[in-house]
Amino acid sequence: MKKYRIISASGADRPGIVHEVSDFVFSHGxxxxxxxxxxxxxxxxxxxxxxxxxxxxxxxxxxxxxxxxESGLQAFIAExxxxxKYEREPALPxxxxxxxxxxxxxxxxxADVLQxxxxxxxxxxARLSPAPSxxxxxxxxxxxxxxxxxxxxxxxxxxxTRLATDINLDVVFQxxxx
Length: 178
Description:
CATH architecture of the largest domain: 2-Layer Sandwich
Number of domains: 2
CATH superfamily of the largest domain: ACT domain
CATH class of the largest domain: Alpha Beta
CATH topology of the largest domain: Alpha-Beta Plaits
Shape: flat
């Protein structure tokens, strides 16, 4: 029987981490199905959804301590379900982008608006970078969110627009076709 797991690993950024982790999964008979990876503050972090037969997954779980010791990575494994069996409520996919001069609390304020409307954040990418001409720090936030059926898209957008006016954000909130 096929099982699904997520392996999360992180460590000081260096060449070869992706190879080490993917080889660890593959050499035990696992198959990488989905992943997210990034360097943040000099640390490389990754999450990989993998699958395998019962015995393959058991071997990966049993050999994790050795892998961590040899690779120097922090790592853990969590149970997951098959992506095609993940039941989702009907929802509209929306692209949400925010750009502003950097200030504390932007992410939490945007997340608060979304949470109040039961909007699910499926993917989030935040960056802080210097503006080309002034060098002032600019914060950008890109999200893929899903607005549940029955939730007013206009109300969510209005609340985001009010927030944008209050704290000086530029906001794009636009349904997308997947």
